[in-house]
Design brief:
The protein is an alpha/beta fold and about 270 residues long. The chain has a single domain, classed as Rossmann fold. It is about 40% helix and about 15% strand. The protein contains ten helices and six strands; from the N terminus they run αααβααβααβαβαβαβ. It has a four-stranded parallel β-sheet. A two-stranded antiparallel ribbon has the order 3-4. Helix 10 links the parallel strand 5 and strand 6. Helix 5 crosses helix 7. The longest helix is centred in the first third of the chain and has 18 residues. GO terms for molecular function: glycosyltransferase activity.
Length: about 270
């Protein structure tokens, strides 16, 4: 193996547990995350997560992109069956671009900067919970993408918050059309009864922090919360990076950046 590729592979393997923790399913062998993507994120000079401009060490966004971030204002649940929602920001500007790159251009390494945003939101809200659970993907979609973005985010925040992570606590029972492509009422019927708790005994009597990347109508989060309550959860709070308006186009194509390994035109919903 050429020296450069050997160095990339060695460093990528060191980072692989971040993604592997979020991947396993019961009856399906899942394609592992692209090690090239993890290596690029590890060995590239510090760059803005949204536009790839050079940034100082430990900075996630350049000055121009950071100026586009609009922090979210907590609001009460819109419906009685919706869990309380904590979001770091509105789905716009640099935050929207980083999320799209994370999901649609094979960039699992972006879980790190997005995880820091999520952690800031959780700490600002003084979150208290007994378990951290990610919103699951259907096994077929997980196999195609190679990673569950919500599970990677949950893995990033569980340890700093000192809350146990139950990475596979929820199962998605059936494939569902992408929520971003449906009308509001269709989104609720699309995910109705689509989730169940794998191990109710580990959830019963516990407060759960439910993690996802974006919330729009809240239909997916509400369906997951319902499954958790049926399993005996005493409380469910949803934590997301961004809250989007219902009119937002979450899967809008973006020009791939120099570190993006998969064209956004061939993205997986």
């Amino acid at each position: 193996m050429p020296l450069v590729l050997r160095a990339l592979s060695t460093r990528a393997l060191a980072l692989q547990p971040l993604a592997v923790r979020a991947l396993s399913t019961c009856a399906l062998t899942v394609q592992p995350p692209d090690l090239r993507a993890l290596a690029i994120g590890a060995l590239s000079p510090p760059a803005c997560a949204a536009c790839d401009a050079p940034v100082p060490a430990r900075a996630d966004l350049c000055t121009a992109c950071a100026a586009t971030v609009r922090r979210d204002t907590p609001t009460p649940p819109r419906c009685p069956d919706h869990p309380p929602l904590i979001a770091h920001a509105l789905f716009q500007g640099a935050v929207a671009r980083v999320i799209r790159r994370f999901k649609y251009t094979s960039r699992p390494d972006l879980a790190r900067p997005l995880g820091r945003m999520l952690l800031q939101a959780a700490r600002d809200a003084c979150v208290h919970a007994d378990l951290v659970l990610p919103v699951p993907l259907h096994p077929g979609r997980l196999a195609e993408r190679g990673y569950n973005q919500a599970a990677l985010l949950a893995a990033e925040i569980a340890s700093p918050l000192r809350i146990p992570l139950l990475a596979r606590g929820l199962a998605r029972l059936r494939p569902t059309p992408h929520q971003a492509r449906l009308a509001r009422l269709d989104r609720f019927s699309n995910v109705s009864d689509a989730f169940r708790a794998r191990w109710p005994a580990r959830i019963q009597g516990r407060a759960v922090l439910l993690v996802d990347d974006v919330a729009t109508t809240g239909a997916t989060l509400a369906a997951c919360a319902s499954a958790l309550h049926r399993a005996g959860a005493t409380a469910v709070t949803a934590l997301v990076i961004a809250r989007a308006h219902e009119e937002a186009t979450l899967d809008l194509p973006i020009p791939p950046g120099p570190n993006d390994l998969r064209s956004s035109l061939n993205r997986i919903p």
